[in-house]
Amino acid sequence: MSILKISRLGHPILRRVAAPLTADVLASADLQRLIDDMVATMVDEEGIGLAAPQVHASVRLVVLGDPDADAEDSDSLPLTVLANPIWRFRSAETDEAWEGCLSLPGLRGWVPRSLRVVVGGIDRTGRAVEITAQGYLARVLQHEIDHLDGVLYPDRMTDLTRLTFLDEYRRYWQPDPDGDDDGDED
Ligand code: NI
Questions:
Q1: Which residues, chain by chain, have CB under 5 Å from ion ligand 1?
Q2: Per-residue confidence in pLDDT tens, the chain, 186 aa
Q3: What domains can be seen in the chain, in order of their start residue?
Q4: 144 a catalytic residue
């Protein structure tokens, strides 16, 4: 497995609408290797999610969660690989929370997202899947799937005074200044 280079804000690939994956391409050795490399890159970067355009592949593929997730721990997200995601439902009810993004290193922003979502798609074997999520998982899914449509989290912010560098986040905004929670980067 290889650690892939992350595209950063300003790279045009982050603003492109990514192409759907055909069954043949998804099953190919190259694409399966891309999935493995994306998971390895996400783990190496300590991210909670990664979308293919963030590793310079303009295809509709996201990985999220933790390969070492503890099934007993409701705070940890199991590793999920999702291709060709399609929204089935996004609640009008939203909540707001801090987000980071590996393509915008060193920044955090306060972002409204739908509280509950249902998304369809296919897994890495091409099998149809449907994910029902709320709260944190719903947020990560929305952040990652936005990447496939060229949307970055500052586009979703309604108050850009809450876009902050990490040092200033820690100093002025962090909910628990004694904690080590710097938020997650997707
Ligand atoms: Ni991101």
A1: 101, 186
A2: 899 999 999 999 999 999 999 999 999 999 999 999 999 999 999 999 999 999 999 999 999 999 998 878 877 889 999 999 999 999 999 999 999 999 999 999 999 999 999 999 999 999 999 999 999 999 999 999 999 999 999 999 999 999 999 999 999 998 776 665 667 778
A3: 12-173 (3.90.45.10)
A4: yes
The one catalytic residue among 45, 46, 130, 144: 144
Torsions phi, psi of 78, nearest 5? -65, 155
Helix (H, G, I), strand (E, B) or coil at 155: helix
**pTM of the full predicted structure?**
0.94
Q: What CA–CA distances, in Å, run from 148 to 52, 134, 155, 182? A: 8, 20, 14, 25
d(CA 148, CA 17): 6
177 C-alpha to ligand 1 centroid (Å): 24
**Pairing assessment for the beta strands 163-165 and 107-114 based on DSSP bridges:** antiparallel
Rounded CA separation 44/62 (Å)? 16
